């Protein structure tokens, strides 16, 4: 649940600092950027006299929606309050320069494995960190604009797989109503345009999806797909893009469990998913783990991948 008192406290902390830098996690996704860039935008709108910066070395390829980071120099970092968004533990902060900042405030929705901030706002019921930013704005009566709403929407939409997963509750829709309300952003929210910015794919990616769909193998209610290096080269897709191919098998009538194998370096990694059958214990047998219906295993030999397929297919 949102904690109004703590959200107000975050505003107080922000108001005490003239220099603020916002960090996010490595291998950033749209929620990492959505929460970082919406907070950056909203602080600049409401505190034009403050010095607000973004930091991060890794990126996703979507200019101009994802602008270059400010990455201020060490002298400036030394004056800054650092706000970490969407980042559960210190090791995942992009990047190590944050140690130069004077203090860390954490805002996140992942289970708290590492309370590395002097103030930690962790709300595991929020379906995205961007959703928390929308509540921070709402509670503190900050003004926002259309671009702020687009960043928040990007995080909310992608972290909930376009609002299809179980943690999409009334609260998400209430926050969605807030950010898309004309009275709050000064114009109609362009939902179609925003979806196109986030979800339009390249022709290469479309063709890769079509080709890989043909390679999905079915055993009863189990589907699996191998994406080997050869496939990635031939289809012009990156390892990151290969990881998304897990979604190709997600909505097929009669398929309850699905596996994606990806070749990386000299081994194979596996993502295991299911709608209703617990299979994370199988991942655990192969040096992996995760949630009951969404887990992973890494550094597998080809023989081990065959064993995983057998065990998952037999699991009822
Ligand atoms: Mn997130």
Overall number of structural domains? 2
The CATH superfamily of the largest domain appears as inorganic pyrophosphatase (n-terminal core)
**Average of the residue pLDDT scores:** 96
User: Unreliable segments (pLDDT under 50, ≥5 consecutive)?
Assistant: none
**Main beta sheet strand tally, sense and closure:** 6 strands, mixed
User: Which geometry do the CA atoms define?
Assistant: globular
CATH topology of the largest domain: inorganic pyrophosphatase (n-terminal core)
Q: Architecture of the largest domain, CATH level 2?
A: Alpha-Beta Complex
Count of helical segments?
13
Strand content: 15-25%
Give the bound compounds: manganese (II) ion
Rg, Cα atoms, Å: 21 Å
Helix/sheet category? alpha/beta
- Rounded to the nearest angstrom, the distance between the terminal CA atoms is 35 Å
Strand and helix order = HEHEHEEEEHHHHHHEEHHEEHEEH
* Percent of residues in helices: 25-40%
Identify the CATH class of the largest domain.
Alpha Beta
What would you say this structure looks like, in words?
It contains 13 helices and 12 strands. The chain has 2 domains: 4-198, inorganic pyrophosphatase (n-terminal core) (Alpha-Beta Complex), CATH 3.90.1640.10; 204-314, Diaminopimelate Epimerase, Chain A, domain 1, CATH 3.10.310.30. The mean pLDDT is 96. Helix 4 (129-140) packs antiparallel against helix 5. Strands 1, 2, 3, 4, 5 and 6 form a 6-stranded mixed beta sheet that branches. A 6-stranded mixed beta sheet has the order 7-8-9-10-12-11. It has 316 residues and is an alpha/beta fold. It is globular and about 60 Å long. The protein has helices spanning 4-15, 30-46, 74-77, 129-140, 146-159, 170-180, 182-185, 191-199, 203-213, 229-235, 239-243, 280-285, 302-314; strands at 19-25, 51-54, 81-85, 93-94, 103-108, 119-122, 217-219, 222-227, 257-264, 267-274, 289-291, 294-300. 40% of the residues lie in helices and 20% in strands. A hairpin with a 2-residue loop joins strand 11 (289-291) and strand 12. Bound molecules: manganese (II) ion.
